[in-house]
């Protein structure tokens, strides 16, 4: 298994994380998740492996998050996942998957917790 980054090229943290992976001498599989989002079960698995709640994995800084009413604490995991599947921009990024684990790399330095040496 190599390194996979779920990447948004418009995001500076995502670009910084990708650059750090490459500087470490690794060429990752880059998944531009806005074009090719993970399926629901893959996303659910990545969230669990990263030790996050579904709410922590949702990008609450996107205006769409509030527009859809997802900032309401009564909105549950399944509704959040539904929204993330319908609108991949709501998936927080970048998520990096390696044989050492999965991390939401915010800040980008979290990458070093899972980057193979």
Question: Describe the biggest sheet?
Answer: 4 strands, mixed
Order of helices and strands: EHEHHHHEE
H/I helix tally: 5
Radius of gyration: 14 Å
**How many strands in all?**
4
Low-confidence parts, pLDDT < 50 over ≥5 residues? Answer: none
Q: Enumerate the strands of the largest sheet in spatial order, edge to edge or round the barrel.
A: 2-1-3-4
Q: At the third CATH level, what is the topology name? A: Glutaredoxin
Distance between the termini: 14 Å
Protein name: Arsenate reductase
Organism: Noviherbaspirillum humi
Catalytic activity: [glutaredoxin]-dithiol + arsenate + glutathione + H(+) = glutathionyl-S-S-[glutaredoxin] + arsenite + H2O
Keywords: Arsenical resistance, Oxidoreductase
Describe what this molecule looks like in 3D.
- Helix content is 35%, strand content 14%.
- It is globular, with a radius of gyration of 14 Å.
- It has one domain (4-113): 3-Layer(aba) Sandwich (Glutaredoxin).
- It has 117 residues and is an alpha+beta fold.
- It is built from 5 helices and 4 strands, in the order βαβααααββ.
- Helix 1 (12-23) links the parallel strand 1 (4-7) and strand 2.
- It has a 4-stranded mixed beta sheet with strand order 2-1-3-4, sandwiched between helices.
